[in-house]
Amino acid sequence: MTDVPAGVPARILHYIDGEFVDSLDGDSFDVLNPVTNEVYVRAAAGKAADVDRAVAAAGRAFHDGPWPRLLPRQRSRVLHRVADLVESRDRQLAELETWDTGLPITQALGQAQRSAENFRFFADLIVAQVDDAFKVPGRQINYVNRKPKGVAGLITPWNTPFMLESWKLAPALATGNTVVLKPAEFTPLSATLWAEIFQEAGVPDGVFNLVNGLGEEAGDALVKHPDVPLISFTGESRTGQIIFANAAPHLKGLSMELGGKSPAVVFDDADLEAALDATVFGVYSLNGERCTAGSRILVQRGVYDDFVAAYAERAGNIVVGDPHDPATEVGALVHPEHYAKVMSYVEIGRTEARLIAGGGRPDGFGPEGNWVAPTAFADVPPTARIFQEEIFGPVVAITPFEDDAEALRLANGTKYGLAAYVWTTDLRRAHNFAQALEAGMVWLNSNNVRDLRTPFGGVKASGLGHEGGTRSIDFYTDQQAVHITLDQSHSPRFGKGPDAATSFKKVD
Ligand code: NAD
C-alpha cells in the first residue's frame, strides 16, 4: 500500500462536545484510497444514538454557552483565526484532501484556500450586518431582532468536501448557531481537521460537533431529530427529495443545493479560444465531480465542426495521473461505486452519440484505482440519457444548434437548473439569453468564478433556496419584528358598551 500521509488518524472518530469519541455501538466503515481502492482507515459509523449525543451537546452550547451571546465582533475574531489557521495549513489540508478524494493536488490547494476565504467573508459580513428599522412618525418604531436558530444540521457531499463544509460552517457559526456536521461517508478525512482548527481558534466546546456515518443512518437521524430546526444539505437531487419528506413533519428550515446538468452555450460570434479553454476546464476540473460543471456544451452550427475537432484534441491531451503530482489535471474518481456509475454512462454514451475523446480507462493504468479518460461525445441528441442525467465525472455531451431559440430550448431542456455559461460577443443577446435561462447562476463569457456576495443555488431539480452573502445570514437566523408604540395605544374598545361604563380602576 502507498504510504499513508502524516495527519491521518488511526481511526476517524466523531467529535462531540470538544472530544473525539467512537460510536456508542463501536461500529465503523471502510474508507478507501481512490488511487488503489485499498482501505486506508476505518471511520466511526454514527447512528441515531450518536446523533442524539451530538445534538444534545450542541443544544447545551446553544442554550447555556457563550457562543450565541458573543458580540458579532467577538465571533468574527474567532472566525478570522479559523481562516488564518486554514491558510497556514493549506498545503497539509490539500494533501489530505487529495489523498482522500483523488482530486489533483493543485486544485485541492485552491479549494483549501477558498475554505479560508469563506470563513473570512462571513467573519466580515457578520460585523457589517444591518437590519431593518422603520419609523411611522409619531406612532411607531419597528425594528428587527436577528437571532440564531439553534442547532444547525449540516449534511455535505464528497466532492471538494472540506470547501463545501466551510461554505456551511462559516455562516452557521458566524450567526451564532451551534452545529452538527455529517460529512459524506466516501470522504470523511478532512472534516476531522475542522475539530483541531476550531479548538485552536477558540471555538467553545459543543459549538462544532461532527458525526460520521452513512447517509441512511447518521444523516437520516439528523434530519429527523426534533431538536434540529434547520438542515442545510448539499448532495444529489434524489437525496434532497428524501430529506424534504423526512423534514416535513418537523416543518424544518431547509436549504438544498442539489444536482446539475449545466449547459455551456457557444454562439458563433464568441471568442472561441476562450470558450474552448473554459468549456474544457468547466467539465474536467475537479475530476468532473463538480455540481456546476458545464457538462452539456451547445455549439452553434457554423462553428460546430471546428469546435468539436479542437475540443477532442484538447480533451485527448489532458494529463490523467497521480493526484499528488502537480502536473496532473485529472486524478482518480472518488470511489469504485462512483467509478462504476461514470463508466456505465460512458458505455451508454457509446450507444447514443459519437465518441470523440476518451471512452473508458486511460492507457497505461493497471487494474487498481478509479481512472477515467476525459471523455467527450458529439452529436448528442437532447433525448439521450447522457444529455439528461447528471454523470458527475469527466464526461461531456456536445450538441449542435441553429439559432437562439433552439439554443434556449436545449439549454432549458433538462430537469436541472443549477448553472449556465454563455459565450457570445453580442451584448444584447448575452443579457436576454441569460434572463431566459432556467438556471440559478449564469456566467457570461466566463468560467465559474464566484463572488461570495451573490446568491448561490439552483432552480428546478437543482435546489431549494439560495445561500451566499446575506442570504446565508437569512437562512441561519430568525428575524423577529419588534414594534414600539410612540403614541396612545389605539385599540378598539371591545366590551366597553354604549354607555362607556367601565374604565380601569385600581382596586386597593
Ligand atoms: P448524496 O446525496 O449521495 O450524499 C450527500 C450527503 O447526504 C452525504 O453526506 C450522505 O451521507 C447524505 N445522505 C444520503 N442519504 C441521506 C438520507 N436519507 N438522509 C440524510 N442524509 C443522507 O450526494 P453525493 O453523491 O455525496 O454528492 C454528489 C451530488 O452532490 C451531486 O448530485 C452534485 O451535483 C451535488 N452537489 C451539489 C452542489 C450544489 O451546490 N448544488 C455542490 C456539490 C455537490
Protein architecture, described:
The protein has 508 residues and is of the alpha/beta class. It has two domains: 14-258 and 462-482, Aldehyde Dehydrogenase, Chain A, domain 1 (3-Layer(aba) Sandwich); 263-451, Aldehyde Dehydrogenase, Chain A, domain 2. It is built from 15 helices and 20 strands. It has helices at residues 48-63, 72-88, 90-101, 105-127, 161-174, 189-201, 215-224, 237-247, 272-284, 301-317, 336-352, 385-388, 404-411, 427-436, 470-475; strands spanning 14-16, 19-21, 28-32, 39-44, 133-136, 140-148, 151-155, 178-182, 208-210, 230-234, 253-257, 263-266, 296-300, 354-357, 375-378, 395-401, 419-423, 441-444, 463-464, 477-485. The strands form five sheets. A seven-stranded mixed β-sheet has the order 14-15-16-13-12-17-18, with helices on both faces. It has a six-stranded mixed β-sheet with strand order 9-8-7-10-11-19, with helices on both faces. Helix 3 (90-101) crosses helix 4 (105-127). It is globular and about 95 Å long. Residues 155-159, 164, 182-185, 215-216, 219-220, 223, 234-236, 239, 242-243, 257-260, 291, 390, 392, 418, 458, 462-463 line the site of nicotinamide-adenine-dinucleotide.
